[in-house]
Amino acid sequence: MKRPPWRLLSALVGAVVLGVVLWRVGTGPFVTGFRELDPWTLVLGAVIGVLATVACAWRWHLVSRELDVRVDVAPAVASCYRAQFLNLTLPGGILGDVHRGVRHGLDAGDTAAGMRAVVWERAAGQVVQALIALVVLLVIPSPVRGSMPAVLAVLALVVAAVAVVVQLTAPSHPDSWAARVRRVVGDDVRAVLAVRHALPGIVLASTVALGCFLATYLLAARAVGVTTSAVTLLPLTLLVFLAAGLPINFAGWGPREGVAAWAFGAAGIGAGLGVETAVAFAAIVLVANLPGAVVLVVDWARRVRSQPDEPPPVEPRLAEKGRAHG
Fold first, then answer.
1. Which stretch of DSSP H or E encloses residue 75?
2. 22, exposed or middle or buried, with CB in 10 Å at 0-12, 13-18, 19+?
3. Model's pTM, two decimal places?
4. 230 membership: H or E segment, kind and range
5. Is the CB of residue 38 less than 8 Å from the CB of residue 223?
6. For 275-302, what is each residue's pLDDT tens digit?
7. What are phi and psi of 218, to 5 degrees?
8. Does residue 75 have a pLDDT over 80?
9. Residue 52 pLDDT > 90, yes or no?
10. Average pLDDT, the chain
11. I want to staple 52 with a disulfide (CB 3.0 to 4.6 A). Which of 12, 129, 212, 239 is the partner?
12. How confident is the model at residue 318 (pLDDT cuts 50, 70, 90)?
C-alpha cells in the first residue's frame, strides 16, 4: 500500500528542518541533550507523563461520550500510551492517533465516529494550548511579544476569509460529499456544545495535560544546565509546542528543534541550549511512553492467542488413499 503524498511530504519537511538545525548548530547539542539525562530525571518525567496521559485519556472519554462512541478511562489510558509511543517512533507524528481512532471505531461499531472522536479530542487540546499560548505571549516578554498584535490581526483575517469562502462555496445539493461533511462537523460541534457540563472537563483536562508538558520541558531545561527562570522559559516553551503541533515533522523531530534553537537564541540563552533542551525533552517523553510498547506487545500476544489453530496439512498420498477408499 502506498503512503499518501502528504505523509511523505510531512516527513520530508521535518527531515529538512532537522538537517538545517544540524548544519547550523552541529551534532554537539544533540549528543549533550541525551548525555545529560540521569535516571532520576527520567523517572520524574515518567511520573509526570502518567498524569499527562490520564488527562488526555479523560478528555477523549468526555469527547467520545458526547459523540455516542464512549470509551472508558482505563482502556483509554492504555490506548493513549500506545498512540503516543507510535507517534514518537513513526514518521508523521499522527499515525498512533489514526490507529487509536480506527481501533476504537471498530470496537464501537462505527469507525467514522471513532475517528471523529479522536480528531475532536486532539483538536480540543490544540485549541486550548493555542489560546493559553496567545495569552502568555501577549503578557510575558518574549522574542515575539512585539509581533503579537500583528499575528492576531492576521489570524482574525484568516478566520474571516475562511468563513466567507465556506459560505460562498456552500454546496447546493444536500446529498453532495461536501454537504455531508458540513452536516457531520456541525452535528459533532453541536453535540459537544449542547452538553455544557462536558466543556469544563475538556478544558480542564487539556490544561492539565499542557501543564504536564510544560513541567517536562522545564525538567529537560534544568537537566542540560539552563538556569533561566521558569517565567522567561514559559513563552519560549509554548512557542516550541506550537511548532511541534504542526503536521510537518519526522516522528516529532524537526520544527520543535528549529523553533527551540531560534527562540532560545533570540532570548539570549543560546541556540545550542535550545536544541539540547528540545532533545532532552524528546528523550524524556519517549522513555515516559515506553508503556505504549508494552501495550503493543500485549495486543499482539492477545491477537495471536485468539487465532484458531489451523489443522495440520494432509499428505498427498494419504489424501489419494482416502479418495480411493471412498
1. helix 73-89
2. middle
3. 0.81
4. helix 230-244
5. yes
6. 999 999 999 999 999 999 999 999 888 8
7. -65, -40
8. yes
9. yes
10. 81
11. 212
12. very low
Reported as a single tens digit per residue, the pLDDT across 7-32 is 566 666 667 777 777 787 777 878 88
pLDDT the model gives residue 89: 86
Cα separation, 147 vs 153, in Å, equals 10
Q: Which residues contact 79 (CB under 8 A, 6 or more apart)?
A: 57, 60, 71, 100, 103, 104, 295
How many residues are given for the chain? 326
Contacts 24+ apart (CB under 8 A), 75-84: 77/53, 78/295, 79/103, 79/104, 79/295, 80/53, 80/56, 81/53, 81/289, 81/291, 81/292, 81/295, 82/292, 82/295, 82/296, 82/299, 83/292, 84/53, 84/289, 84/292
- Whole-angstrom distance, CA of residue 217 vs CA of residue 279: 10
- 258 alpha carbon, distance to own chain's centre: 18
Q: Which of 289, 317, 306, 321 is nearest to 90 (CA)?
A: 289
Joined together, the cell numbers standing for residue 194 give 449542547
Amino acid at 20: V
Please enumerate, as own/partner, the contacts of 231-237 that have beta carbons within 8 Å and a separation of 24 or more.
231/140, 232/140, 232/141, 232/267, 234/136, 234/140, 235/133, 235/136, 235/137, 235/140, 235/141, 235/142, 235/144, 235/145, 236/142, 236/143, 236/260, 236/263, 236/264, 236/267, 236/269, 236/274
Distances 72 to 61, 199, 225 between C-alpha atoms, Å: 6, 18, 41
Q: Which residues contact 105 (CB under 8 A, 6 or more apart)?
A: 69, 111, 112, 113, 114, 115
Which sign does the torsion angle of CA 215, 218, 224, 229 carry?
negative
